[in-house]
Amino acid sequence: MSTPFTLHPRLAADTLELGRHDGVLVLLMDDERWPWLILVPTEPDLVELDHLDAQRREALMGFAASLTALLRDITGAVKTNVATLGNMVPQFHLHVIARSEGDPAWPGPVWGQGEARPHADREAAVGLWRERLTGLLDA
Amino acid sequence: MSTPFTLHPRLAADTLELGRHDGVLVLLMDDERWPWLILVPTEPDLVELDHLDAQRREALMGFAASLTALLRDITGAVKTNVATLGNMVPQFHLHVIARSEGDPAWPGPVWGQGEARPHADREAAVGLWRERLTGLLDA
Description:
globular
């Protein structure tokens, strides 16, 4: 018996949904301090990197690599951070974050740094990011 | 003209070399607070995830996935963190870290948390980890 996929409530509360890409939910962190995407494979009971089979892992990391290039192009970021931690939210999710010198946590990690600053206009943020991701989200 | 691969001096100073796996340098963070491995593809001028070609990326992430399973088995960790940040050291490197409830940074990230606690007996630590990684390091 497998349970169907449902997004962890903490992830649902902290993010805005942009769309899907090949079985992966693409979320925007609702924190305008950083350009910050979160990828969640829509498979139940995934926690660790080795729970993904090779094909899904390769597809996910290939997509993450494409997003790092896109984030640098769009934002002029000097660095991207790609990470799966899951210490607080066990459901497997991969962070892809654009970093710039002088950003609110630079050069430290972004997690656990102060309070999130939600997007002032969430609808506009989602619209902007969907446009940026044109061709990468499922129709 | 390409420059040959050399390990970034900061990584060299902060880690102990365990060996190589298929073109990837396998390092042990010299900080006994966490079981913490660092993987560095031995290719010059790599900075970002998308600088790796698909084949090398897939091999690296497959190896990282194997290590997450191994780390959980060995250490009884409840979670592994797999991340490439590179905000301080631009040379591409991938962290694979075993996390446990109550560890010195739990549930926050490990980076930038206080001072490293170097292994009391570095030679013994390297020996132990080489044994743990039997079959995964090039002969």
